[in-house]
Design goal:
Layout (H helix, E strand, L loop, with lengths): L20 H22 L15 H22 L2 H32 L12 H8 L1 H13 L7 H26 L5 H5 L2 H30 L7
Helix pairs in contact: 1-2, 1-5, 2-3, 3-5, 3-8, 5-8, 6-8
């Protein structure tokens, strides 16, 4: 009996879910994400003992969502399950623009002053830095452009999700501050409340813009057609 091969969207460039390239990309991504979490557990810093653990950092929240997306993607590859594949795509709609935002903000801010995002005593080596702040955006973008159907999310919907996410994160950071007495990012200490509002509004707008830029890149690579996710 021939194995069941799930039907893919006509704009989707490569077969996925599948046990070929799709499975390889998802496994490689999961391996990188797992190595990053192991590094965070093993790396001896004060943050390991504080309220909120490393999930005080937007980078690690993004990494967790990316891990869920690729976990369901890998399960879909193994089982050829369309529901699991759709679940991967739903997480990816959030994780991919979020990781692009993280990479953009981290690269932009550290080019001015790295200690605004990472205190001197917490500075990362080159490879941990890349695996946390570059690799997730790269593999998720690759997954979207080559192994996923197009997104149907509009700019208004993307802006609503990203702005809600940004201010929910701010509330979470303030909750951690009440317990720990300091912010995870030194930049927050340097900004007054009005400027924090500006920062989070800008971040929400940038994340929504990342969603639209990814959709445009998808259309340029795979052609325009009917959205599905």
């Amino acid at each position: 009996m021939r194995p069941y091969v799930p039907k893919r969207h006509p704009q989707q460039r490569l077969a996925s879910p599948s046990r070929g390239l799709s499975s390889l990309i998802h496994f490689a991504g999961l391996s990188s994400f797992a190595a990053s979490f192991k590094f965070l557990i093993d790396y001896p810093t004060l943050i390991n003992e504080t309220y909120g653990w490393h999930f005080q950092y937007l980078t690690v929240i993004g990494l967790a969502i990316a891990t869920l997306a690729f976990f369901f993607g890998s399960l879909a590859d193994i089982t050829a399950s369309r529901p699991l594949f759709r679940l991967k795509n739903l997480f990816s709609v959030i994780a991919t623009p979020l990781e692009v935002l993280i990479t953009t903000l981290y690269g932009g801010i550290t080019s001015v002053d790295k200690e605004l995002v990472v205190p001197k005593e917490f500075q990362l080596g080159f490879w941990p830095d890349v695996s946390l702040h570059v690799v997730p955006a790269l593999v998720l973008t690759l997954d979207f452009l080559l192994l996923s159907p197009p997104w149907s999310i509009s700019f208004r919907q993307a802006l609503g999700i990203s702005t809600t996410f940004a201010f929910a994160y701010w509330l979470w950071v303030e909750q951690c501050y009440r317990h720990n007495g300091w912010y995870p990012y030194p930049l927050f200490e340097a900004l007054t409340i009005p400027w924090r509002v500006v920062l989070f509004c800008f971040s929400g707008l940038l994340m929504a813009g990342s969603t639209q830029a990814l959709k445009l890149a998808y259309q340029r690579l795979n052609g325009a057609g009917t959205d599905s996710t």
